[in-house]
């Protein structure tokens, strides 16, 4: 599989059977980052439930062809391929650090270019990191309304971790681990059905 700029793809050892295609849209400009530390735990937990194939789109690494694009019709082929990757996922993980009470502008710009109807009924797991617990409201007041516009199926339990939950970029807080377990266990049957569905 060809790896496109701004996308990392992983095909881990996994049991035979239907594969859930998981795409992470990473809104963090930092590398490594606490945001992706959180996502790593989410993916490891999900990997213990279902066979998955993961791809990662780092919106801050998509380059000037992405940042300079205003309309979907104007996007070059490589950016269009990255948008389609997100649109065709079985499960989308939207992961952001909180800036000024909301998600970063580059993350929003990516979804400004996503087709309006491409995410209808698509499961989306919301994940965010911030300096303190007061930033957790971004999940309900910013991220969930964004995906409601797309008529996506946002997973009921969203996941937030604050700076104090990490050692560097390694998540330590067992309560966050527990929330991740709850979030995924609640929808594992739905995700399994997505993996066995057509396409």
Automatic annotation (TrEMBL):
Keywords assigned: Flavoprotein, FMN, Oxidoreductase
Listed SUPFAM superfamilies: Flavoproteins
Pfam family, one: FMN_red
Domain NADPH-dependent FMN reductase-like: 21-163
Signal sequence, start to end: none
UniProt entry tagged with the keyword Transcription regulation: no
GO molecular function: oxidoreductase activity
Top-level taxon of the source organism: Bacteria
PANTHER family noted in UniProt: FMN REDUCTASE (NADPH)
Name of the protein in its database record: FMN reductase (NADPH)
Protein's organism: Amycolatopsis taiwanensis
Gene field: msuE
């Amino acid at each position: 599989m060809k790896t496109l700029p701004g996308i990392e793809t992983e095909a881990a050892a996994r049991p035979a059977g239907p594969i859930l295609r998981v795409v992470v849209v990473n809104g963090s400009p930092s590398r490594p980052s606490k945001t992706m530390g959180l996502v790593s735990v989410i993916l490891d937990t999900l990997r213990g439930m279902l066979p998955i194939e993961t791809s990662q789109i780092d919106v801050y690494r998509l380059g000037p062809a992405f940042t300079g694009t205003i309309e979907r019709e104007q996007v070059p082929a490589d950016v269009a391929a990255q948008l389609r990757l997100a649109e065709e996922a079985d499960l989308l993980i939207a992961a952001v650090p909180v800036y000024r009470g909301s998600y970063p502008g580059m993350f929003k710009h990516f979804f400004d270019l996503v087709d309006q109807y491409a995410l209808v009924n698509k499961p989306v797991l919301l994940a965010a990191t911030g300096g303190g617990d007061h930033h957790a409201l971004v999940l309900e007041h910013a991220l969930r309304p964004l995906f409601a516009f797309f008529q996506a199926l946002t997973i009921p339990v969203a996941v937030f971790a604050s700076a104090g939950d990490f050692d560097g970029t390694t998540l330590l807080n067992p309560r966050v681990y527990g929330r991740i377990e709850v979030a995924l266990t609640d929808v594992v049957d739905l995700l399994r059905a997505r993996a066995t569905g057509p396409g």
